[in-house]
Amino acid sequence: MTSDEVENIAITVAGRGVRKDLVIALRAGDGDATTETRSLFDIGVVRDVYRIAGTAFAAVALGYDAREAFPYQGTLYLVDHRGEIEPFVPARSAAAR
């Protein structure tokens, strides 16, 4: 919607107020405003794209063959060029693998 997190949340809350079955993709950070908004209604799936992209970038910089990345239950997983999946463990360097 906009680049302003609070404005996006306000628009989302207004839209949900008008139509309860509205499907919403909300652009907002993972700060206090988003946490508070979550208490107002069920947001659904939340993805921190900055964390996913930043961690995947760090993995590649450390020598991991990461073509894709996705979060699951608090862990970021990497997918290599063969489609194999492994959890990204930052303390484990590519040289130790």
The N- to C-terminal Cα distance equals 43 Å
Structural class: alpha+beta
Biggest sheet, open or closed, and with what strands and sense?
3 strands, antiparallel
User: Which series of helices and strands comes N to C?
Assistant: HHHEEE
What percent of the residues sit in helical stretches (DSSP H or I)? 25-40%
How many domain units?
2
Low-confidence stretches: none
Tally of DSSP helical segments? 3
- Could you tell me the radius of gyration in angstroms? 17 Å
The mean pLDDT is: 79
How many individual β-strands? 3
Estimate the global geometry from the Cα principal axes. Answer: elongated
Strand arrangement in the largest pleated sheet = 1-2-3
Beta content comes to 5-15%
Description:
There is one protein chain. By secondary structure, the protein is an alpha+beta fold. The chain has 2 domains: 36 residues, no CATH class; 48 residues, no CATH class. The protein contains 3 helices and 3 strands; from the N terminus they run αααβββ. It has a 3-stranded antiparallel sheet, with helices on one face. A hairpin with a 5-residue loop joins strand 2 and strand 3. Helix 1 runs parallel beside helix 2. It starts with a helix and ends in a 10-residue tail after the last strand. The mean pLDDT is 79.
